[in-house]
């Protein structure tokens, strides 16, 4: 069965689900303000381990999480574009995108005010800003953005349809929606319908569960030691499962195919 955390969060009512996830991320950002923890995704590792993006030495510890951002956000050329990450969390991904992929502007939006505060304090990069906002009611003008990135965040939202409609609204014609997230395998057809009903063209649909599992397994020892050091008491086990350490329920569900992880490149066509 799914991990207790995901089984519960994926089945509760939309409004309650939004509230629960917001409380969780507010708590994590406030309780654990360490600047060592700036990425919150399961990571990506190609089966060809010789493929490595160049990183600064101090960023090597976050390589697998960064590789997921790179795989998703480098699917289109971001140079000189106005880009937004919805669900920017602790800000590491938005910072990486701005520094390495060179959009003209990069804005991180998150529903957790504590996460926005953390991001502003720990990511000082020219052209990078962080603002509080709701994925289902984005604080952005119509047709004002070239690219929207959304990595491992949408499963927290109350309404995927509202979020996708908002993305479509704020993208300029020919703008791109770069999306990656996990779902129970039986929900992918409904996800495809949500994208098509909103008006998006699917330029790429890629199953990356294997690459995510590769990263989970490669990063297991570091992640386990990190949480053992940082988290004490009753929260350690649920956070280990939440983080996807090797042998956790979520790791098992990815491995047996009950949970899947997809990457999409979607385009808003010209009117």
Automatic annotation (TrEMBL):
The keyword Transferase applies. Signal peptide: none annotated. Residues 84-179 form the Methyltransferase type domain. The keyword Methyltransferase applies. Keywords: Methyltransferase, Transferase. Gene3D superfamilies: Vaccinia Virus protein VP39. GO terms for biological process: methylation. GO terms for molecular function: S-adenosylmethionine-dependent methyltransferase activity. PANTHER family: GERANYL DIPHOSPHATE 2-C-METHYLTRANSFERASE, ZGC:194242. This is Methyltransferase domain-containing protein. It comes from Dokdonia pacifica.
